[in-house]
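Quick note —
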Amino acid sequence: MINNREIIETINMVKKEHFDVRTITMGISLFSCIRESAAKTADAVYDLVTKRAEKIVETGETLSKKYGVPIVNKRVSVTPVSFLTAAFPDDSVLVARALDRAAKEVGIDFLGGYSALVHKGMTDSERRFILSIPEALATTDKVCSSVNVGSTRSGINLDAVGLMGKIIKKAADLTRERDGFGCAKLVVFCNAVEDNPFMAGAFHGVGEADTVINVGVSGPGVVHHAIKEMPDANITELAEVIKKTAFKITRVGQLIAREAAQMLSATLGIVDLSLAPTPVVGDSVAHVLEEIGLERVGGHGTTAALALLNDAVKKGGTMASSRVGGLSGAFIPVSEDIGMINAAEDGTLTLSKLEAMTAVCSVGIDMVAVPGKTSASSLSALIADEMAIGMVNNKTTAVRVIPVPGKDVGDFVEFGGLL
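Predicted structure written out below.
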């Protein structure tokens, strides 16, 4: 039973501490949509997505009103499209455009799954599919893409890593009028998970049921507030309060996920408890780390503080739900975290330090803008380093980097909103 004290705590978390359910994501299997041509496959994909996800936005709004908890995004992830277009990879963009139309029709924020899994090897059809990614991202508004190029078991596909540097450069060039925004919708993974509800890396894994509801819960502001209330706590006490806070947050996510799955006649998937920041003051992972005791994120002690935070969040979430999954932990997307932005501006947070932090956080080098003149080979080298961290440490790592056309060191760019 939920008592009055817990109800008041939840109200305060929402009103004062920026707590929200970041996303309800419906995963949809598209294997039944494969036809003899790209055009017919695209039509079948559109029909299935609009049918299955018809009420996801309405459901999210209903649950938000019922429980008084903001549900920020309603999204869809689909089977990696490279599986659907293996017989006609040069026409894969037709499916991307059909997915974009479907996303707009049902009113969701983003749709993930224009993806390929090439961690051990790359067929000719997969290579040709990957070559279509820049055009797909440039000609759609809501479609997101990801490519898994490594795993702990198989190692790193360096041919795919080399290709992805060129793909990122091409995506930036084709969306140069939007400061290379196409790259913000593209993630390169090692050890990608099949039940990630967060964009831009979400896809519906081949081992999943036909239709699954995964929920992503976020609350760096809640954790920040809890730590701030204990100024004299030692490290062990801080870890305990983070665990207890994560427990409370995850319970809300579990409740929303269960009801959403019932209302949408879908399989209940996972709750992803990830401290995903926003640019709003008071909703920053960097500020949580500084409240733990850092003078500034990026300085000595940052990696250790992040490891403590990530470990406590995972343990607290696991106690609250048997279905914790996805990426669960702390995200460090530089351009989506006001504390990270400030640390980067004053030079405390560098790309090298960020790479070290990715060894212990949930994902990797995320939403980092770099000069537009950065070469494809340099991007591939950055990806290779990050994939090596994931492979050796048996964890998910990722790179979402944006070479901004026409911009150099010291310039500013604004992408607006969260992805």
